[in-house]
Each structure stands twice: as C-alpha cells, then as structure tokens.
Amino acid sequence: MIVEHLSLVDFRNYAHAELELRRGTNLLVGRNGQGKTNLAEAIAYLATLGSHRVSADAPLVREGKDAAFVRARLVHGTRAVTLELQINKQGSNKARISGNPVKTNELPRYAHAVLFAPEDLQIVRGDPSSRRRFADQLLVQRAPRMSSVIADYDRTLRQRTTLLKSARARGMKLEQLTTLEVWDDKLVSLGTQIIDARTALAADLAGPVARAYAAIAGEDHSPELAWALSIGGADPEESKLEATDSGPTADLFRRALVARRSQELERGLTLVGPHRDDLVMRLRGLPVKGYASHGESWSSALSLRLASAELLRSESPGGDPILILDDVFAELDAARRRRLGQVVADYEQVIVTAAVAGDIPDHLREHAVRIEGGEVLGPLAEHPIEEGA
Fold this sequence. Notes:
There is one protein chain. With 389 residues, the protein is an alpha/beta fold. It folds into two domains: 177 residues, 3-Layer(aba) Sandwich (Rossmann fold), CATH 3.40.50; 196 residues, RecF/RecN/SMC, N-terminal domain (Glutathione S-transferase Yfyf (Class Pi), Chain A, domain 2). It is 39% helix and 23% strand. A six-stranded antiparallel sheet has the order 2-1-4-5-6-7, with helices on one face. The protein has a six-stranded mixed sheet with strand order 8-12-13-3-14-15, sandwiched between helices. The radius of gyration is 22 Å and the shape is globular. The two termini are 37 Å apart. The model has no long low-confidence stretch (mean pLDDT 90).
C-alpha cells in the first residue's frame, strides 16, 4: 500500500497543501517548525484515528478555522481508494471513502500506517497511559471494530465514576448504590474484550519485537512484553506490577470490582479495569522503564513500532503498511542509523522527515522534497536549503 497523493486544507500550519508521494522512500526536508511532521501526522491519523502528539483534535485545526480537511489517495496494486476526513474543532468528525459518507472508524480498514517519532520514547519511559495508547491504536488498526469497543468502555467508565463521585459527595452507603451493578455489567463486558485483545497483542508482538530489537541494537537483550493487569491484583497506577490472581478475564474483573468497591466509594474512582493496566517491557529480565540506558530505550521504542509494522504486514491483504519515520535519524548514533535504514529498505513506501538530509542514509534520499513555512516547495535539488540561512 502507498499514498500517491495527500491534500490538506487548514490542517495545523497548512492553509492548503498538495504532496505527491512515490513508491519507495520519500524524504521530507526542512528546518524545525516548518510543517514536516504535520504531513506525517495527517497520514497517520487516517490509520489510527488519533495524533501521536496530542490527545484532542482541536490543535489539528488551523488557528481561526472550525475544521481541517485531509484527503489521501491510496493505491494497492491496481486498486485505488480516496479517503477524506473532516476534523472538526467541535463536534464529531466526518469521513468519506471514494465519495461515500462513512463512519470515521471505517478509515483504518483502508489506511494502514505505522509512525515512529521522538515522542515515542515516552512509550517506554513515560507513564502507563502512553503504553495503553500505543496498544489501543494498534488494536484499532488490526481490528477497526475495537475503536467502538474502546469508546464505549471509556463512556461507561466515565458514567460509573460519576456515580461513585456523586455517592461519595452525598455520603451514601454501598448498599444504597443499587444501580452500580448495572454499570459493572457493562464495564466487565466491554473491558474484558479490551483486556483479552491487548493480551493477545502482546503475545503476537513478542517475536517481531525480539527480531526488531536485535536488528536495531545489533545484539539480543531478550526483550519481553507482558501486561500488568489491575483485575489480577497488579496496580500500575500505584507502582505495583505483580499480579496475584488468575482465571477467566470476566470472572477476575467482576471479583476485583466487588473486592475494591469500598475503596472506590471512598475515593470516587473506578480502581480496576483496562484503564489502569500497563504494558511492561523488559530487557534482560529488568523493566525498560527505570533500568534501560538511553540507547536501549530508543531501541526498545523503535522495536515496538517496527514490530507493529511487521505484524500489520503479515496480516493485511492490502500489502505493507506505510512506514513513517518522523525526525528519528537525528536521535540515533551512526550504527543505529545504518541498521534502521537496512530494516526499512524493503517496505513498499517509507516516509522520512529530517531537518538535515545528511542525517539520512544515502539509499533513503532518492526522492527528497523541501518543506518550508507550511508549504511544499518541491524537489530538494531545485529548492536547496542554504546553510546558515
């Protein structure tokens, strides 16, 4: 799969942009703050229904405008499809596929992309929400229906938590919370689907992560992935990573809710469920967070993204996912740059952004385009960036 053409209107710093892309490697070059990442972000949004930089959509809309528009023509073999997305500053977004209105959660069925950016270091070094977000975006790419499951779970969680806060404020006793069991049923039904899908994802990523890590780092540090589940007795939000209980997910979830009910009422919070779980990555038996060196952390984050691409590639009838490397090579040493260049070379389409073309391995510079001030200027050879300018 490749993106042949990308059009943007009022997206980030672009009033209007037209970008032609080719099979193989496409290099977008420009100084920091010119809009390279915004182009990458727009493509990735179609695949994940989210930004890798912000959690809300409003910052994606150009200042002073109410909506942004992203249009991409995707090609796989002889098949072409056009995806259109209207991102509204307020209210629900709208989407079309080849001119036909669809729900936005249909877009990931057609757009497959994996983006790696410097912010991804937070996947391995940040708080658990960064890892949950990584996993859930990949779940949606593998099974787009999970977008609705996750949204329904989040909505149910908010409503249940509102009930607990209201009960605490009114000084109610547990036996007076007669409606809590209704919300428990919904939470368990939806949350079980998320937990089971995440657990299966970690198992499926294990092999690809190990291969990607060895390829990038040049050595095998025995990377491992496992979920610390709050329904099993772990509580990553409170730095307790070891689970003590096991059994069918739904049964564990229900028992955990009953066991923590008094605490939940005291605190006005829902204390167990996938919203409090963590994806723990280990190297040589130790958690990456808190123990890995800077280079090991970069290799870990990269291996998660490359493993995601390998997984999508093996499962998708639409060919390779579009691989996007946003300002990544500048952060790597020469050996990791070379190895990363070798790993990505055989993907159908790779989009690379860089402030300095010289940071990129030679074989990834064939089609270089200059970006400046929210404009796509054209081939770098015709619009060189003057040193010191």
